[in-house]
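Incident log, structure service

09:12 report received: a user says their structure output differs between two submissions of the same chain.
09:20 pulled the input from the user's history:
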Amino acid sequence: QVQLVESGGGLVQAGGSLRLSCAASGRTFSDYAMGWFRQTPGKERQFVAAISRSGGTTYYADSVKGRFTISRDNAKNTVYLQMNNLKPEDTAAYYCAARNGVVSSIVYVRRDVYPNWGQGTQVTVSS
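09:34 re-ran on a clean worker, output below:
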């Protein structure tokens, strides 16, 4: 199993930016495709962004496209989510997830295919 720890959440005004980090340990990080999801109380965890093992393929939810950027540094065992032009509706707990990827260029967007999850970091955007 790979262990995941998110950081970088906080309180920001609408229009501001945050960068989330997810540090991985326990396995070879470059073997894992990574994803970011978010969840608000009483709702299901939703897909935000995903990146392939190699970092060459990314995919975004329509709601964040053009504002958020997912990236990874395999040398640092870390995946990032740069969030710009934040909106109050982006308020949520953000979770990173990892899945062992057989093909280096594939991304995964379904929540149920990720077996490894971090504990989450809260992002609050004030209007």
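09:41 both user submissions now match this output. Likely a transient worker issue. Closing.
09:42 reviewer note: The chain has a mean pLDDT of 97. DSSP finds no helices and eleven strands in the chain.
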